[in-house]
Amino acid sequence: MALHLDAAGTPFELHYYVKRRENAAFVGEIAKIISHGTCVVHCSDEGQSPRSSLADTLGDARADHHLYLCGPSGFMDTARRIAAEKNWPEAQVHSEAFQPLKAAATSDDQDTFTVTLASSGETWPVPGDKTIAQVLQEHGVAVPLSCEMGMCGACLTPLMAGEADHRDTVQSEAEKSAAAQQIALCCSRSRSANLVIDL
């Protein structure tokens, strides 16, 4: 994200939280390659733990700013809580986890549903032991994938009809309940008998 913003000439601040300075990976490399942003390393052993400094770092919400969070779930939960306290709208807070959240197993996991391509009308069953992405690939449909765990957003695809059981961590709750939704083909399932996707 920092490289993308820098390449676009967009000013940004990168705040990197670590226990000790020697734990900070790529700080030298980041400092050398960015020209439109700043990188600030916050070290817990130097008194700059997330608990003590995150509220000041986030500051109050600004209409033209967005927060992009990445890290362990505890860190991101704390950052999201503080952002809410600082009146950051949920739509301006984005995150990417180091690992997917564990979804509670449900009986729906084993239920078969169908997926339909809006462009061709082709429909295939998605059994409980396969993802939508796997079924589409088995039928020759190109699906952009990266993490395959619902964390990156590469496979987000517009949902045209049906009710998604969203299991990704890349979309906000507001995005998951919006009128125009996207579904993560690598991990999400269906609460309805059929999903129609914009492919």
UniProtKB/TrEMBL annotation:
<keyword id="KW-0223">Dioxygenase</keyword>
<feature type="domain" description="2Fe-2S ferredoxin-type">
    <location>
        <begin position="113"/>
        <end position="199"/>
    </location>
</feature>
<keyword id="KW-0479">Metal-binding</keyword>
<dbReference type="InterPro" id="IPR039261">
    <property type="entry name" value="FNR_nucleotide-bd"/>
</dbReference>
<dbReference type="InterPro" id="IPR012675">
    <property type="entry name" value="Beta-grasp_dom_sf"/>
</dbReference>
<keyword id="KW-0560">Oxidoreductase</keyword>
<dbReference type="GO" id="GO:0051537">
    <property type="term" value="F:2 iron, 2 sulfur cluster binding"/>
</dbReference>
<dbReference type="GO" id="GO:0046872">
    <property type="term" value="F:metal ion binding"/>
</dbReference>
<dbReference type="InterPro" id="IPR036010">
    <property type="entry name" value="2Fe-2S_ferredoxin-like_sf"/>
</dbReference>
<protein>
    <submittedName>
        <fullName>Phthalate dioxygenase reductase</fullName>
        <ecNumber>1.-.-.-</ecNumber>
    </submittedName>
</protein>
<dbReference type="Pfam" id="PF00111">
    <property type="entry name" value="Fer2"/>
</dbReference>
<keyword id="KW-0001">2Fe-2S</keyword>
<keyword id="KW-0408">Iron</keyword>
<keyword id="KW-0285">Flavoprotein</keyword>
<dbReference type="InterPro" id="IPR006058">
    <property type="entry name" value="2Fe2S_fd_BS"/>
</dbReference>
<dbReference type="InterPro" id="IPR001041">
    <property type="entry name" value="2Fe-2S_ferredoxin-type"/>
</dbReference>
<dbReference type="InterPro" id="IPR050415">
    <property type="entry name" value="MRET"/>
</dbReference>
<keyword id="KW-0411">Iron-sulfur</keyword>
<dbReference type="GO" id="GO:0051213">
    <property type="term" value="F:dioxygenase activity"/>
</dbReference>
